[in-house]
Amino acid sequence: MQIQVVKSKIHRVKVTGADLNYIGSITIDVALMEASNIFEGEKVSIVNINNGERLETYAIPGPRNSGEITLNGPAARKVHKGDIIIIISYGIIDMEKAKDFKPSIIFPNENDNTLT
Question: Which residues form the active site (predicted)?
Fold first, then answer.
């Protein structure tokens, strides 16, 4: 049997922008993507701490060390600049392997989204 587990998590980052006129996705500083093991085009869940909204989209890389976290397209309606969000991706794994699996979880500085 296989189960779905947390693969990657960026815990508490500040939204730096919301672009309704973009075609979709979330732009994430590539340094944060690499540190959390999130891949370009990967499906991610977004949890907004400020308003409780939850949504799914896909990740695209933003400029390295920019701290950029921008919700694009329809997702831009679910956040405001300055909101704190959690970004989560999941993977499917065999139950036995899941017992030893460790997700990539990072805790950036939520004031400027830098890795500390």
Answer: 25 (schiff-base intermediate with substrate), 58 (proton donor)
